[in-house]
């Protein structure tokens, strides 16, 4: 297949190379293909645009995973990508919280979010999301499937993530912290929780600390996260969470040979 590139502006040519992400492409099994395509595109560009595209590659780099979080291993991702591209049913063994389960999927797409790959697939007539790192085995079948004509991956993902965040279990908590330790609290409960938090009036606080009401995602993990504040936080409400934090703190002291 051959074509001539005509009408590309300087910014358009540059953006093509800014969009080329070698890391994720390699994970999908397309690293060499992407590199070859970029070389061919560079060769087809006029000299001025070629130089501009080269400067973009030298000056911009995308590193998707967050700090201290390496990209999750997803050894079967390239097999999944083949199934998506060729509309072939995929037999997988999927690790869940308690056990593993066999699943026959009709893969519709893959999504990379914050260094984590997800597989969007139809099963039993329902579209679901699977974490790629939990796929323990994947085998392409000879069975083809028809991709729903009205399915839009980006639209599905936007709606799915919005529903996930909206319906996530949350616990309302009131804490007191020193003003200079609010940033530490944010690292433990997340930026979205702190942006939605309410600062309460507490003129009579004995230490001049800030009182904050916030919603913490996943209540069962709240105590374990908050205990990381050490002496720089006190849980005021609810009492059950306060007691859980105390129990964890006492357990840590006992483990280190200190009784309280």
Structure description:
The protein has 260 residues and is α+β, with helices and mostly antiparallel strands. It has a five-stranded antiparallel beta sheet. A hairpin with a 2-residue loop joins strand 2 (100-113) and strand 3. Helix 1 runs parallel beside helix 4. The chain folds into three domains: 10-59, no CATH class; 77-166, SH3 type barrels; 170-255, Alpha-Beta Plaits, CATH 3.30.70. It is 40% helix and 27% strand. The model has no long low-confidence stretch (mean pLDDT 84).
Q: Low-confidence runs (pLDDT<50, min 5 residues)?
A: none
Give the structural class: alpha+beta
CATH topology category name of the largest domain: SH3 type barrels
End-to-end C-alpha gap: 75 Å
CATH architecture of the largest domain: Roll
The H-and-E topology, N to C, reads as: HHHHHEEEEEHEHHEEHEH
Main sheet properties: 5 strands, antiparallel
Q: Provide the domain count.
A: 3
How many H/I helical runs? Answer: 10
Radius of gyration, in angstroms, nearest whole number: 25 Å
Strand content: 25-35%
* Average pLDDT: 84
Spatial strand sequence of the major β-sheet: 4-3-2-1-5
- What does the overall shape look like? extended
In helices, the fraction of residues equals 25-40%
CATH class of the largest domain equals Mainly Beta
Number of strands: 9
Layout: helices, strands, pairs:
Elements: H1 10-19, H2 22-27, H3 31-44, H4 47-59, H5 77-86, E1 88-95, E2 100-113, E3 116-123, E4 126-131, E5 135-144, H6 153-167, E6 170-177, H7 182-189, H8 191-195, E7 198-200, E8 210-217, H9 222-226, E9 234-237, H10 239-255
Antiparallel strand pairs: 1-2, 1-5, 2-3, 3-4, 6-8, 6-9, 7-8
Helix pairs in contact: 1-4
